[in-house]
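Exercise 7. Predict the structure of GNAT family N-acetyltransferase from Aquirufa antheringensis.
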Amino acid sequence: MNKYTVQVASEQHFDLAESICHEMAESAKARGTGIAKRTPEYLQEKMSEGKAIIATDDVDGSFVGFCYIETWQHGKFVANSGLIVKPSYRQYGVAKAVKMKAFELSRSRYPDAKIIGITTSLAVMKINSDLGYEPTTFAELPVDDNFWKGCESCVNFDILTRTERKICLCTGMIYDPENPDKKTTEEKDEKWLFLKNIADFTRLKKFKEKLLLPFTKKAK
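Solution. The predicted structure, encoded as tokens:
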């Protein structure tokens, strides 16, 4: 594996937008879970605004990892969305490095905002937890329709609609700057211990899917 550089994306990375979008789509197919689709133009817009983080290969300059920032309700909420890492670079800490950079950028540009996220990924949940995020209900997430519009291209969107945005296969997470996590590393690790056990997490996911099965059947 070549070395890589993590930085705030800019216009010089426009030519990588298409390959990033392609990798997002392929990743969603491989996992069999939903993901909000984004166009190359949308990612380029984020790059030009200085609201995206990219990791690039130091040798050939190719895309290695990516994430972007979105805001809602006049900057009250911020999300680090669209995290993706090229398969050949997974398990090398790229996702964590990109997320940490995006988190730092969010705190710098929007110091008073609550940083939120919704995900089905165990790895992302653990990274978020290490950054100080806490699990939260969907009721604590933005009421802005534009926030939920990002879920429309997800295969599970019908479940979200039928439950009136109360529950879906994703887990909601939030970092509140007014109530920063004061727990010790040991306490945080204990709280998230069940997520470290893949078998336990799989059972939890299956339970959630079973709970939402009636909504899935109605969608077919």
